[in-house]
Amino acid sequence: MQLTEKRKSPLSSLATAVLDPYAANFWLQKVNPLWSVNQSLGKIVKKEQTAKDVVSLTLQVNKKFQMGAAGQHHPVYVNIQGVRYERTYSLTQLDAQHVLLTVKKVDQGKVSTWLVEQAKLGDTLEFGAPYGDMQLPAQTQPLILLAAGSGITPMYSFIQNLVQSGRLGGTSIHLLYWVKTFADAAFKAQFEAWAEQFPNFTLQVFYTQEPSLKHSRLNAEHLQDLANKDQSTVFACGPSGFTTQVEQLFTQAAVVKTEAFSMTPVLGDDVGLVQVTLTKSKKIVTIPKGKSILESLEQQNIKPKYGCRMGICHKCVCNKAEGSTKNLVDSVQNSEPNNQLKICVNSAQTDLIIDL
Ligand code: FES
Q1: Span 17-55, pLDDT tens digits
Q2: In the CATH hierarchy, which fold is given to the domain comprising 41-127?
Q3: Which atom of ligand 1 sits closest to the CA of residue 314?
Q4: For a FRET experiment, which of 3, 39, 256, 327 has its CA 20 to 30 Å from that of 218?
Q5: What's the fold here for domain 273-354?
Q6: Residue 203: which H helix or E strand, with range?
Q7: Which of 87, 310, 318 to mutate to test the pocket of ligand 1 (most atoms within 8 A of CB)?
Protein backbone atom coordinates (compact mmCIF):
# COMPACT_ATOMS: atom_id res chain seq x y z
CA MET A 1 0.00 0.00 0.00
CA GLN A 2 1.30 3.41 -0.89
CA LEU A 3 0.83 6.34 1.51
CA THR A 4 0.42 9.72 -0.08
CA GLU A 5 0.62 12.98 1.83
CA LYS A 6 -2.54 14.96 1.43
CA ARG A 7 -1.80 18.68 1.16
CA LYS A 8 -4.42 21.36 1.64
CA SER A 9 -5.10 23.40 -1.44
CA PRO A 10 -4.72 27.20 -1.13
CA LEU A 11 -8.48 27.42 -1.49
CA SER A 12 -9.11 25.05 1.38
CA SER A 13 -6.56 26.94 3.56
CA LEU A 14 -8.43 30.12 2.77
CA ALA A 15 -11.76 28.47 3.58
CA THR A 16 -10.39 27.26 6.94
CA ALA A 17 -9.09 30.72 7.70
CA VAL A 18 -12.42 32.28 6.81
CA LEU A 19 -14.25 29.90 9.11
CA ASP A 20 -11.73 30.13 11.91
CA PRO A 21 -11.06 33.69 13.16
CA TYR A 22 -7.82 32.57 14.88
CA ALA A 23 -6.45 31.28 11.61
CA ALA A 24 -7.70 34.33 9.73
CA ASN A 25 -6.03 36.67 12.25
CA PHE A 26 -2.81 34.67 12.07
CA TRP A 27 -2.55 35.12 8.31
CA LEU A 28 -3.81 38.69 8.23
CA GLN A 29 -1.30 39.76 10.87
CA LYS A 30 1.56 38.33 8.81
CA VAL A 31 0.73 41.16 6.38
CA ASN A 32 -0.22 43.89 8.86
CA PRO A 33 -0.12 43.47 12.68
CA LEU A 34 -3.25 45.61 13.03
CA TRP A 35 -5.43 43.55 10.69
CA SER A 36 -7.93 41.30 12.40
CA VAL A 37 -11.40 39.95 11.73
CA ASN A 38 -12.51 40.41 15.32
CA GLN A 39 -9.79 41.89 17.56
CA SER A 40 -9.52 45.47 18.73
CA LEU A 41 -5.78 46.14 18.39
CA GLY A 42 -3.34 48.99 18.87
CA LYS A 43 0.28 49.26 17.71
CA ILE A 44 2.76 51.22 19.81
CA VAL A 45 4.07 54.09 17.68
CA LYS A 46 5.58 56.27 20.42
CA LYS A 47 6.83 55.66 23.94
CA GLU A 48 7.83 58.44 26.30
CA GLN A 49 8.50 58.75 30.00
CA THR A 50 5.98 61.15 31.57
CA ALA A 51 7.08 60.86 35.24
CA LYS A 52 9.18 58.58 37.43
CA ASP A 53 8.28 54.96 36.59
CA VAL A 54 5.49 56.22 34.31
CA VAL A 55 5.36 55.87 30.53
CA SER A 56 2.83 57.09 28.01
CA LEU A 57 2.37 54.86 24.98
CA THR A 58 0.82 56.30 21.84
CA LEU A 59 -1.04 53.54 20.00
CA GLN A 60 -2.34 53.50 16.46
CA VAL A 61 -5.61 51.56 16.67
CA ASN A 62 -7.41 49.45 14.08
CA LYS A 63 -10.99 49.68 12.79
CA LYS A 64 -12.32 47.23 15.40
CA PHE A 65 -11.22 49.51 18.25
CA GLN A 66 -14.14 51.00 20.17
CA MET A 67 -13.12 54.20 21.95
CA GLY A 68 -14.83 54.74 25.29
CA ALA A 69 -15.96 58.10 26.64
CA ALA A 70 -13.26 60.16 28.37
CA GLY A 71 -12.72 58.76 31.89
CA GLN A 72 -13.88 55.22 31.08
CA HIS A 73 -11.61 52.19 31.34
CA HIS A 74 -10.56 49.60 28.79
CA PRO A 75 -9.43 46.04 29.42
CA VAL A 76 -5.91 45.72 27.97
CA TYR A 77 -4.60 42.23 27.11
CA VAL A 78 -0.91 41.49 26.80
CA ASN A 79 1.00 38.27 26.21
CA ILE A 80 4.09 37.91 28.36
CA GLN A 81 6.15 34.75 27.85
CA GLY A 82 3.16 32.98 26.34
CA VAL A 83 0.75 33.88 29.13
CA ARG A 84 -2.15 36.21 28.40
CA TYR A 85 -2.87 38.83 31.09
CA GLU A 86 -5.74 41.29 31.42
CA ARG A 87 -5.45 44.65 33.15
CA THR A 88 -7.55 47.80 33.15
CA TYR A 89 -6.41 51.25 32.08
CA SER A 90 -8.01 54.57 31.30
CA LEU A 91 -7.14 55.74 27.75
CA THR A 92 -7.02 59.21 26.25
CA GLN A 93 -8.18 59.73 22.69
CA LEU A 94 -5.65 61.78 20.73
CA ASP A 95 -7.36 61.65 17.31
CA ALA A 96 -9.47 59.22 15.25
CA GLN A 97 -6.62 56.69 14.94
CA HIS A 98 -4.52 57.26 18.06
CA VAL A 99 -4.96 56.79 21.81
CA LEU A 100 -2.65 57.38 24.75
CA LEU A 101 -2.12 54.67 27.35
CA THR A 102 -0.33 55.89 30.49
CA VAL A 103 1.04 53.26 32.85
CA LYS A 104 2.81 53.46 36.20
CA LYS A 105 5.03 50.58 37.17
CA VAL A 106 3.67 49.03 40.37
CA ASP A 107 5.59 46.80 42.77
CA GLN A 108 5.31 43.15 41.69
CA GLY A 109 3.09 44.27 38.80
CA LYS A 110 3.89 41.91 35.93
CA VAL A 111 1.92 43.78 33.27
CA SER A 112 2.80 47.34 34.35
CA THR A 113 6.49 46.40 34.60
CA TRP A 114 6.40 44.85 31.12
CA LEU A 115 4.64 47.88 29.63
CA VAL A 116 7.01 50.36 31.30
CA GLU A 117 10.27 48.48 30.81
CA GLN A 118 9.91 46.16 27.84
CA ALA A 119 7.09 47.18 25.51
CA LYS A 120 8.62 48.68 22.38
CA LEU A 121 7.61 50.46 19.21
CA GLY A 122 5.81 48.07 16.85
CA ASP A 123 4.41 45.84 19.64
CA THR A 124 0.64 45.36 19.49
CA LEU A 125 -1.80 45.28 22.41
CA GLU A 126 -5.35 44.01 22.38
CA PHE A 127 -8.23 45.94 23.94
CA GLY A 128 -11.67 45.04 25.26
CA ALA A 129 -14.86 47.09 25.22
CA PRO A 130 -14.81 50.22 27.42
CA TYR A 131 -16.78 50.45 30.67
CA GLY A 132 -17.20 52.62 33.75
CA ASP A 133 -19.56 55.41 34.71
CA MET A 134 -16.98 58.12 35.42
CA GLN A 135 -17.93 60.25 32.43
CA LEU A 136 -18.21 63.97 31.78
CA PRO A 137 -21.71 65.44 32.13
CA ALA A 138 -23.38 66.21 28.79
CA GLN A 139 -24.05 69.81 29.80
CA THR A 140 -21.19 72.17 30.62
CA GLN A 141 -21.04 72.65 34.39
CA PRO A 142 -18.40 73.51 37.03
CA LEU A 143 -16.03 70.64 37.70
CA ILE A 144 -13.67 69.84 40.54
CA LEU A 145 -11.15 67.15 39.59
CA LEU A 146 -9.09 65.50 42.33
CA ALA A 147 -6.33 63.02 41.62
CA ALA A 148 -3.67 61.23 43.61
CA GLY A 149 -0.80 59.43 41.89
CA SER A 150 -1.95 57.39 38.87
CA GLY A 151 -5.47 58.74 39.40
CA ILE A 152 -4.41 61.58 37.12
CA THR A 153 -4.97 59.54 33.94
CA PRO A 154 -8.80 59.83 33.76
CA MET A 155 -8.48 63.53 34.66
CA TYR A 156 -6.03 64.04 31.79
CA SER A 157 -8.49 62.30 29.52
CA PHE A 158 -11.33 64.60 30.68
CA ILE A 159 -9.35 67.76 30.10
CA GLN A 160 -8.00 66.62 26.74
CA ASN A 161 -11.60 65.86 25.71
CA LEU A 162 -12.82 69.29 26.86
CA VAL A 163 -10.01 70.97 24.92
CA GLN A 164 -10.77 68.96 21.75
CA SER A 165 -14.51 69.69 21.97
CA GLY A 166 -13.96 73.40 22.66
CA ARG A 167 -15.62 73.16 26.10
CA LEU A 168 -12.67 73.90 28.37
CA GLY A 169 -13.23 77.67 28.24
CA GLY A 170 -16.94 77.37 29.06
CA THR A 171 -16.96 76.80 32.83
CA SER A 172 -14.77 76.73 35.92
CA ILE A 173 -12.61 73.62 36.26
CA HIS A 174 -10.26 73.10 39.19
CA LEU A 175 -7.72 70.30 39.11
CA LEU A 176 -6.04 69.36 42.40
CA TYR A 177 -3.31 66.74 42.05
CA TRP A 178 -1.33 65.02 44.83
CA VAL A 179 1.99 63.30 44.20
CA LYS A 180 4.95 62.39 46.36
CA THR A 181 7.76 64.35 44.73
CA PHE A 182 8.44 66.65 41.77
CA ALA A 183 9.54 63.61 39.73
CA ASP A 184 6.14 61.93 40.19
CA ALA A 185 4.00 64.66 38.57
CA ALA A 186 2.83 63.51 35.12
CA PHE A 187 1.56 65.87 32.37
CA LYS A 188 2.41 68.92 34.50
CA ALA A 189 3.77 71.02 31.62
CA GLN A 190 0.68 70.27 29.53
CA PHE A 191 -1.69 71.16 32.39
CA GLU A 192 0.20 74.42 32.97
CA ALA A 193 -0.04 75.28 29.27
CA TRP A 194 -3.82 74.73 29.37
CA ALA A 195 -4.13 76.80 32.57
CA GLU A 196 -2.28 79.62 30.79
CA GLN A 197 -4.53 79.37 27.74
CA PHE A 198 -7.87 78.96 29.59
CA PRO A 199 -8.19 81.31 32.60
CA ASN A 200 -11.11 79.35 34.11
CA PHE A 201 -9.01 76.17 34.32
CA THR A 202 -6.83 76.14 37.46
CA LEU A 203 -4.21 73.64 38.55
CA GLN A 204 -2.70 72.99 41.97
CA VAL A 205 -0.10 70.27 42.51
CA PHE A 206 0.71 69.10 46.05
CA TYR A 207 3.98 67.30 46.85
CA THR A 208 3.61 65.28 50.04
CA GLN A 209 7.17 63.95 50.25
CA GLU A 210 9.20 66.69 48.61
CA PRO A 211 11.60 67.73 51.42
CA SER A 212 11.47 71.44 50.58
CA LEU A 213 7.64 71.56 50.56
CA LYS A 214 6.00 68.68 52.43
CA HIS A 215 2.46 69.62 51.44
CA SER A 216 -0.34 68.01 53.41
CA ARG A 217 -2.63 65.30 52.10
CA LEU A 218 -6.17 66.22 51.07
CA ASN A 219 -8.06 67.93 53.92
CA ALA A 220 -10.78 70.58 54.46
CA GLU A 221 -8.27 73.44 54.06
CA HIS A 222 -7.75 72.54 50.41
CA LEU A 223 -11.43 73.22 49.75
CA GLN A 224 -11.56 76.69 51.26
CA ASP A 225 -10.63 78.61 48.11
CA LEU A 226 -12.60 76.49 45.64
CA ALA A 227 -15.39 78.43 43.95
CA ASN A 228 -18.79 76.82 43.15
CA LYS A 229 -18.19 73.84 45.46
CA ASP A 230 -21.85 73.04 45.99
CA GLN A 231 -22.83 73.44 42.33
CA SER A 232 -19.88 71.41 41.05
CA THR A 233 -19.59 67.89 39.78
CA VAL A 234 -16.66 66.33 41.63
CA PHE A 235 -14.55 63.53 40.16
CA ALA A 236 -11.82 61.83 42.18
CA CYS A 237 -9.42 59.00 41.44
CA GLY A 238 -6.67 57.67 43.68
CA PRO A 239 -6.04 55.14 46.46
CA SER A 240 -9.07 54.14 48.56
CA GLY A 241 -8.12 56.37 51.52
CA PHE A 242 -8.06 59.36 49.17
CA THR A 243 -11.44 58.65 47.54
CA THR A 244 -13.07 57.99 50.94
CA GLN A 245 -11.78 61.37 52.14
CA VAL A 246 -13.24 63.04 49.02
CA GLU A 247 -16.65 61.51 49.72
CA GLN A 248 -16.54 62.80 53.30
CA LEU A 249 -15.42 66.31 52.33
CA PHE A 250 -17.83 66.87 49.44
CA THR A 251 -21.16 65.82 50.95
CA GLN A 252 -22.73 69.09 49.71
CA ALA A 253 -21.52 68.86 46.10
CA ALA A 254 -24.07 68.41 43.30
CA VAL A 255 -22.54 65.11 42.12
CA VAL A 256 -19.53 63.16 43.44
CA LYS A 257 -18.00 60.27 41.51
CA THR A 258 -14.96 58.46 42.80
CA GLU A 259 -12.82 55.54 41.68
CA ALA A 260 -10.20 53.84 43.81
CA PHE A 261 -7.34 51.83 42.38
CA SER A 262 -6.11 50.35 45.65
CA MET A 263 -7.72 48.91 48.71
CA THR A 264 -7.70 49.78 52.38
CA PRO A 265 -4.97 47.92 54.29
CA VAL A 266 -6.13 45.04 56.45
CA LEU A 267 -7.00 46.13 60.00
CA GLY A 268 -5.83 44.36 63.13
CA ASP A 269 -9.25 42.79 63.82
CA ASP A 270 -9.52 41.36 60.30
CA VAL A 271 -7.45 38.29 61.08
CA GLY A 272 -8.26 34.60 61.20
CA LEU A 273 -9.68 32.15 58.71
CA VAL A 274 -13.16 31.54 57.33
CA GLN A 275 -14.72 28.82 55.20
CA VAL A 276 -16.13 29.61 51.78
CA THR A 277 -18.57 27.18 50.18
CA LEU A 278 -18.62 27.44 46.37
CA THR A 279 -21.99 26.06 45.35
CA LYS A 280 -21.44 25.69 41.59
CA SER A 281 -18.01 24.11 41.73
CA LYS A 282 -19.00 22.10 44.85
CA LYS A 283 -15.90 23.03 46.85
CA ILE A 284 -15.26 24.25 50.36
CA VAL A 285 -12.09 26.27 50.88
CA THR A 286 -10.52 28.09 53.80
CA ILE A 287 -9.38 31.66 53.16
CA PRO A 288 -8.10 34.50 55.36
CA LYS A 289 -10.42 37.24 56.60
CA GLY A 290 -9.66 40.79 55.52
CA LYS A 291 -8.25 39.89 52.12
CA SER A 292 -9.77 40.09 48.64
CA ILE A 293 -11.91 36.96 48.11
CA LEU A 294 -10.78 36.81 44.46
CA GLU A 295 -7.09 36.83 45.40
CA SER A 296 -7.63 34.28 48.17
CA LEU A 297 -9.44 31.90 45.81
CA GLU A 298 -6.70 32.30 43.19
CA GLN A 299 -4.16 31.29 45.79
CA GLN A 300 -6.12 28.05 46.18
CA ASN A 301 -5.87 27.48 42.43
CA ILE A 302 -9.49 28.44 41.82
CA LYS A 303 -9.75 30.83 38.90
CA PRO A 304 -12.97 32.88 38.99
CA LYS A 305 -13.73 35.24 36.11
CA TYR A 306 -12.41 38.77 36.60
CA GLY A 307 -11.61 41.97 34.68
CA CYS A 308 -10.48 45.20 36.33
CA ARG A 309 -9.86 43.87 39.88
CA MET A 310 -10.90 47.35 41.09
CA GLY A 311 -14.67 46.99 41.52
CA ILE A 312 -15.57 48.78 38.28
CA CYS A 313 -16.26 46.28 35.49
CA HIS A 314 -18.69 43.85 37.29
CA LYS A 315 -17.03 40.82 35.64
CA CYS A 316 -16.34 39.09 38.96
CA VAL A 317 -19.83 39.58 40.41
CA CYS A 318 -21.54 36.50 41.84
CA ASN A 319 -24.42 35.86 44.20
CA LYS A 320 -23.59 35.67 47.89
CA ALA A 321 -26.15 33.32 49.42
CA GLU A 322 -25.01 33.74 53.03
CA GLY A 323 -22.36 35.37 55.17
CA SER A 324 -20.83 38.71 55.97
CA THR A 325 -18.38 40.62 53.77
CA LYS A 326 -16.47 43.90 53.96
CA ASN A 327 -15.71 46.19 51.01
CA LEU A 328 -11.97 46.82 50.94
CA VAL A 329 -12.37 50.21 49.23
CA ASP A 330 -14.88 51.93 51.50
CA SER A 331 -14.98 49.46 54.47
CA VAL A 332 -18.79 49.01 54.15
CA GLN A 333 -19.95 45.70 55.63
CA ASN A 334 -22.76 43.60 54.17
CA SER A 335 -24.51 40.72 55.91
CA GLU A 336 -27.63 40.46 53.76
CA PRO A 337 -28.31 37.06 52.20
CA ASN A 338 -28.67 36.76 48.41
CA ASN A 339 -26.65 39.81 47.50
CA GLN A 340 -24.56 40.61 44.44
CA LEU A 341 -20.93 40.40 45.53
CA LYS A 342 -17.85 41.79 43.77
CA ILE A 343 -15.28 39.31 44.94
CA CYS A 344 -12.32 41.43 43.75
CA VAL A 345 -12.93 44.23 46.27
CA ASN A 346 -14.62 42.36 49.12
CA SER A 347 -13.21 40.31 51.94
CA ALA A 348 -14.94 37.65 53.99
CA GLN A 349 -15.82 38.53 57.58
CA THR A 350 -17.58 35.24 58.37
CA ASP A 351 -18.05 31.89 56.66
CA LEU A 352 -19.62 32.44 53.24
CA ILE A 353 -21.75 30.58 50.73
CA ILE A 354 -21.31 31.98 47.25
CA ASP A 355 -22.63 30.82 43.87
CA LEU A 356 -19.36 30.25 42.06
S1 FES B 1 -13.02 42.28 38.45
FE2 FES B 1 -13.97 44.14 37.80
S3 FES B 1 -15.48 44.42 39.37
FE4 FES B 1 -14.37 42.74 40.06
Answers
A1: 566 888 888 888 888 888 888 899 999 999 999 999 999
A2: Elongation Factor Tu (Ef-tu); domain 3 (2.40.30)
A3: 3
A4: 327
A5: Ubiquitin-like (UB roll) (3.10.20)
A6: strand 201-207
A7: 310
